[in-house]
Amino acid sequence: xxxxxxxxxxxxxxxxxxxxxxxxxxxxxxxxxxxxxxxxxxxxxxxxxxxxxxxxxxxxxxxxxxxxxxxxxxxxxxxxxxxxxxxxxxxxxxxxxxxxxxxxxxxxxxxxxxxxxxxxxxxxxxxxxxxxxxxxxxxxxxxxxxxxxxxxxxxxxxxxxxxxxxxxxxxxxxxxxxxxxxxxxxxxxxxxxxxxxxxxxxxxxxxxxxxxxxxxxxxxxxxxxxxxxxxxxxxxxxxxxxxxxxxxxxxxxxxxxxxxxxxxxxxxxxxxxxxxxxxxxxxxxxxxxxxxxxxxxxxxxxxxxxxxxxxxxxxxxxxxxxxxxxxxxxxxxxxxxxxxxxxxxxxxxxxxxxxxxxxxxxxxxxxxxxxxxxxxxxxxxxxxxxxxxxxxxxxxxxxxxxxxxxxxxxxxxxxxxxxxxxxxxxxxxxxxxxxxxxxxxxxxxxxxxxxxxxxxxxxxxxxxxxxxxxxxxxxxxxxxxxxxxxxxxxxxxxxxxxxxxxxxxxxxxxxxxxxxxxxxxxxxxxxxxxxxxxxxxxxxxxxxxxxxxxxxxxxxxxxxxxxxxxxxxxxxxxxxxxxxxxxxxxxxxxxxxxxxxxxxxxxxxxxxxxxxxxxxxxxxxxxxxxxxxxxxxxxxxxxxxxxxxxxxxxxxxxxxxxx
Amino acid sequence: xxxxxxxxxxxxxxxxxxxxxxxxxxxxxxxxxxxxxxxxxxxxxxxxxxxxxxxxxxxxxxxxxxxxxxxxxxxxxxxxxxxxxxxxxxxxxxxxxxxxxxxxxxxxxxxxxxxxxxxxxxxxxxxxxxxxxxxxxxxxxxxxxxxxxxxxxxxxxxxxxxxxxxxxxxxxxxxxxxxxxxxxxxxxxxxxxxxxxxxxxxxxxxxxxxxxxxxxxxxxxxxxxxxxxxxxxxxxxxxxxxxxxxxxxxxxxxxxxxxxxxxxxxxxxxxxxxxxxxxxxxxxxxxxxxxxxxxxxxxxxxxxxxxxxxxxxxxxxxxxxxxxxxxxxxxxxxxxxxxxxxxxxxxxxxxxxxxxxxxxxxxxxxxxxxxxxx
Lengths: 659, 374
Fold this sequence. Notes:
The structure holds two protein chains of two kinds. By secondary structure, chain A is α+β, with helices and mostly antiparallel strands.
């Protein structure tokens, strides 16, 4: 039994030993498999999983970028960033949010509407996200909050920045304004999409909008480690943002303010331009509004007030307002006639107050008539009869050519303002294409006095005046100062060089082309727009007469001091066709309903001896140009010329100063 | 026979002390230290509840293991069945009056400790089988009676544990039992037949599974199916391990676990945390430590004269291997997620107690390796 038992025992031992051996081999293989998987995860795919782990644990918080400033010519900030006091709270860190918020409501004296808005906002965001209770605490509120801070645990008064427009309504249309980025802003501009953070303000209109990508700046970034529930644990990294580019403009705040003051809430626009450099010294549209209102979301009352104002403050009249230019077109009509040798300066017309043509009566503004007038007199007294006859001889197509050359019917800027309008200078071809009807000769006559189809913006008239006043050279109107801008002296020498080239022979450009050199766009700039400069000089002299000689339409607004003396041309454009009966009545302006009153226009340049600046003044339904617009020019020229000295001094001191 | 017993009686205490397996003890202590440090890391570098109680349990159970090591192997042999029945009764007790937690009824409230009998069953089944086959003659191992009895002994506790429900532990009990059956010479064809039967009955088994268990199996095959739901654990665990790289993120610097991306990091996923912090080198070292423990345990079995001791050591070594394999494969995405702790590393008193009881028997086998049990 013992031997048997030991035999079975031996067999048992050998079976168990053999099977354990097999098992051990299997174990080695399995452990090898585990090591292989570890190797695959930790060595081969380490990069992938490290990225995934970082993606898990790191969250980036973009900070709002700080927007670049706008400066005027003298470096004064006209749109900047203001330090504001905000009140933040992270609901998660507050023990009893409801009682806290009610306490804050009492202290800040918030109205129920604002309070409900805060509660609504709180419910839409995560409890660890910062809730902005107030974006802009007044100093009083800030002080009060700080006083009670010990009983408001969880509430944080924070110093932040917000856009501010220190000159309020003065630059509204030029600069535009910023407001919270909308879904449309995000889809239309990738730069905004890239840099968007909740509450980001972006340009909605004007330069703020068109220069958005320069102004917006770079986001600061805070990188936090978060846990599985998305709660911030600690800050890993902080990258400073970059302030957006500051933009220096050509405008002079003193002049801009003067324009605002002159317009004094009347619907209208004033533009002032350097006739050589094209610098726009002022461009104001009235009535205006305070863009600061839009910063934190405009209140319903304010918005309704702006929207329902019959004078339409939201419209930038300087570049989007299209009006018949009236008699301010006459210098161009005269120039066109001279250039095309339609008449000589001695050509005379007898004005009897009206003229019968093609079976219709065309009236001169002066019922009694001007008598026998030549071209100079016709411009001076703005005789419509003369211009009917001259236009008839000139024809609309030749007028169209000259007017377009001098800047009418084209946008003044290249894509700075989305809303800018090109206006319209009619031609026979235009009418056929646009209206499908043939040109009627009578339409040529009224185009010649700036009525009918022709429509211009106030800034176009300013550019036209500038390009006449500088002797007839193309200039580059601009608002933004760049490093490589040509100086006044450079531009003058270019103009004289281009004039010389023209005198040498009209085939000069063709000769260049033959040599394989194409005259570039830049060569086109500062090149003459005339055939014979004498014609331009003649027109300018006639404009001088219009302002500075007895019987001139703006004689009463003249300045005799040579330093300020200017030349100009009045314009009174009809809004409505005037019937014979009305003409007979000859109503006083106050007796006509506002929307039927004439627009008052005035274009001018000066100082006459050595012209440097041009301006256009437009008063919507302002009555006659001579009585309403021209007196403003008189006041404005004083300021513009005085500021010229400041401008020159500043230029001397700050050569190549760019913001 | 009398002589032999007398001979064993002559072993002095110092001889016993000398014959302890110090390499194994050293490895267990090292593992205890690593596990305590890992527990410390799960609590973000603070000594909190889990760390404290884990350290205390380790010290208490390890000391208990040392003391029980001196218990004669014969005594272990004689209580083999009793231990099994006691644990079985506790299992029944648990399913009747047990403490419920997170949807399952696994614990027995013993006033000083909440015991999880299913964990103890993992050792008890080995002990029971070792005793059973100690007596069984090799030629009768495959007799009908000797196949049926162990099957019943194995299936009853498994059914009880499955009904708790605790799929993970029941699988581990089953695997531990089967390994002992295999070692003791049960014909290979039974294993083949039963696997075939299991394979065929798999659809029926699956239909009995709880929805969350089905989901886990589906998720295992495609974790990206539901990355924030059922696949979350596998994906986050793999991210943690994978991001550890060669040398790991450093002690207490495992971002995945520290930032709560890891589920159940104290228990089933403790290896993930360890692997994230100590990388490939650390993980392989830990695996190597387990390999040594398994090897030393098996070696003790090899030199044991008693069949009970030998079978127990082989069985227990294989069980440890199975626990480690199942747990690691699970957190590395090689197996579906089933609740299975990593021996000694994972937080849990019953598991630690069971493991330490096992090592007591192993040590006792070592000390009394020349002892023959009648």
